[in-house]
């Protein structure tokens, strides 16, 4: 396991993992801290919890950007504490047998919740159905930092990976969700996977999705072959194919 903390602004940190190129967040207030995502299992969660304790002794609250295991299944290591997530995230965790945990104090972000960490307010928001049915982003307005979960990804030299587009992904409404988060005008955008970057990543992701959605429409209408669509896509072939062929919307 190879990991490092990077301070993005005063009291706003990202922990970067070589494994899965994962990014998790830590936001410090005067009274408590917020941990953004929890890694993928009990052991990984415990590693993250210990790493947070190396930074601060403040009591913590956690938020899950979505239900995928690599972001959510480490949550037990932080209990008992408040855990924020979208209702659809709770549903999926329940189906996976991961919500009924002893001491789990689950709180729902239906649309938008403001948390007061003491001298700092943080907004948790659901920008619409996109990468998963229950995506939540975390906006630290005073620091200009947005933790975007897997709504944006930042693979070397590009945006999405084949894993970005699962059966629970809704491609059609994803660009609108990106419009929502672009409107927050954060200077620093932290993807769920990949290095933190600027707001231009949101626009690039949106543009790539928009193009792939158009190609998918033409493939479905019989106007383009898969091969022709792959050739015209801004995304690598395996990533485009994952988007074109995924079940669901
Ligand atoms: Zn995901």
Automatic annotation (TrEMBL):
InterPro entries the record matches: Metallo-B-lactamas, NDM-1-like, RibonucZ/Hydroxyglut_hydro
Classification via SMART domains: Lactamase_B
Pfam families attached to this UniProt entry: Lactamase_B
Lineage: superkingdom: Bacteria
CDD domains with a match to the protein in the record: metallo-hydrolase-like_MBL-fold
Domain Metallo-beta-lactamase: 21-193
UniProt keyword terms in alphabetical order: Hydrolase
GO MF annotation list: hydrolase activity
Protein name stated in the entry: Zn-dependent hydrolase, glyoxylase
